Amino acid sequence: MPLMFPSVADVEIAAAVFKEHLDQLWATGRPQRLGWEQIATVPADPLHVVIKLPAKRPSGEIDSYFVSLGAEYYDAAPPTVAFVQPDTWLQAVEPSLRFPKIEPRPSWFGLEAIHNFPNGAKKQLICFSFTAEYYMVEHSPTESQRWKQGRHTLAATLFRLAEVLAPPHYRGPTQ
Fold this sequence. Notes:
alpha+beta; Ubiquitin Conjugating Enzyme; 8 strands
């Protein structure tokens, strides 16, 4: 049984807090310095945004990934997270140019193109304690790993994800 299956958030509150946290992060200027791009809310819906993140191979080559963040459970729980195809905004499949190869994987990180969730859903799993999906599968995070409302924001999710999209973990697309 999962430790905590997130509860669906109130749409208006989640959308407002999500936007506020996204705006606060972008106002720091750090995402721009890191080469991140905020794609207009795609699809036009206040609970989702797509962020274009660069990924650096050990050779120095740069690839781009599109990451969908969702506020369905935000901010009592972290955002939902998935790599998506930029032409359709559907979840990226493996192998593809839009699904990364992460090796060696840090002990705190998991990635599956298709995962069988306990509720019967079959979808992508980006798994670390700053994604909502982490709490939908069986995990027992320590107190220091657990998402804390009021302390953590979607910024923590993006910075942690950017960590695996760089050496020594990122190896290139799966295709």
